[in-house]
Automatic annotation (TrEMBL):
It is an enzyme of class 5 (isomerase). Its EC number is 5.1.1.7. The lineage of its organism: Bacteria, Pseudomonadati, Acidobacteriota, Terriglobia, Terriglobales. The record marks H147, E200 as: Could be important to modulate the pK values of the two catalytic cysteine residues. This is Diaminopimelate epimerase. Catalyzes the stereoinversion of LL-2,6-diaminopimelate (L,L-DAP) to meso-diaminopimelate (meso-DAP), a precursor of L-lysine and an essential component of the bacterial peptidoglycan. The gene is dapF. It comes from Terriglobus aquaticus. Keywords: Amino-acid biosynthesis, Cytoplasm, Isomerase, Lysine biosynthesis.
Length: 273
């Protein structure tokens, strides 16, 4: 049996497993347990490695088994679990995408509001040539993991004659992004409010993304003159961004909820607690 925790942040859902149960089978476990029909169902698994000195290292595997550098929402879910189960209100977590510090702002039983230092994002405008569509203008943003951000004025986030889901799938696996990319479609509502949709690498269309929120905000602030304190909403709800200056870390504040704990039965050999 594999003990797990399920948590979500704005509907971007994660399983949290101890690194010690994985036995090197992280990718296969992610594919098995994240399956919506044959598993527990989640966008990814956060494997928590507890080090001897009390620090944490997180490895994130997407639902398709690919490993990502980090997740903003997933890291927040893990911080919520550590606060819920161990009472720690401030947690510093290392990931392959950098160190992230999470501070609990509010909590009510299993519901948390958490602010995370998301590091300093980088942005570069980029045109991608899509076969049959033509040049698509956007920006490459790195928030510890890779994103391609496009702007749209359409209510349904359609652009270049396609739905965001279809264009997201094209762009995610385009040859210009050999390691694939997350894709955000952003609408500017006002200087302090943006809306976006996320096509996540290794997952597909989903309800929210923490790094996606940061990437969308980075593009809106840098390229559309939005305010440095803004609200970014996706299908799963709003998150708050504060980016004091371009060379300073971006801060992301959003909810996380512990959904349940349980024991999974895996068909994989050698995987158990
Ligand atoms: N939803 C996450 C991002 C998860 C990683 C992403 N799929 C990738 O492969 O980079 C978030 O909240 O940041």
């Amino acid at each position: 049996m594999i003990p797990f925790v399920k948590a979500h942040a704005c509907g971007n859902d994660f399983l949290i497993l101890e690194e010690s149960v994985a036995n090197g089978q992280h990718a296969a476990l992610a594919r098995e347990l994240c399956s919506r029909h044959y598993g527990i169902g989640a966008d990814g698994i956060e494997f928590v490695d507890r080090r001897a000195d009390g620090s944490f290292f997180l490895r994130l595997f997407n639902a398709d088994g690919s490993e990502a550098e980090l997740s903003g929402n997933g890291t927040r879910c893990v911080a919520a679990w550590i606060a819920y189960s161990e009472g720690l209100k401030s947690t510093t977590i290392e990931t392959h995408g950098g160190v992230r510090t999470c501070n609990v702002v509010e909590c009510d039983d299993a519901d948390f509001l958490i602010e995370t230092d998301m590091g300093v994002p980088t942005i570069q405008e980029r045109t991608v040539d899509l076969h049959g569509i033509g040049p698509v203008q956007g920006a490459v943003v790195n928030v510890g993991n890779p994103h391609f951000v496009l702007f749209t004025v359409d209510q349904d986030f359609r652009t270049y004659g396609h739905t965001w889901e279809a264009l997201g799938a094209y762009l995610c696996t385009h040859r210009d992004f050999p390691g694939q990319t997350n894709v955000e479609f952003v609408r500017i509502i006002s200087p302090t409010e943006i809306q976006f949709r996320i096509y996540e690498r290794g997952v597909g269309p989903t309800h929210s993304s923490g790094t996606g929120t940061c990437a969308a905000a980075t593009a809106a602030i840098t390229l559309r003159n939005c305010a440095r304190l803004l609200t970014a909403s996706s299908i799963g709800g709003p998150q708050r961004i504060h980016w004091p200056a371009s060379d300073q870390p971006m801060r992301l504040t959003g909810p996380a909820r512990i959904v349940c704990t349980g024991n999974a039965v895996s068909a994989l050999r050698g995987v158990s607690a």
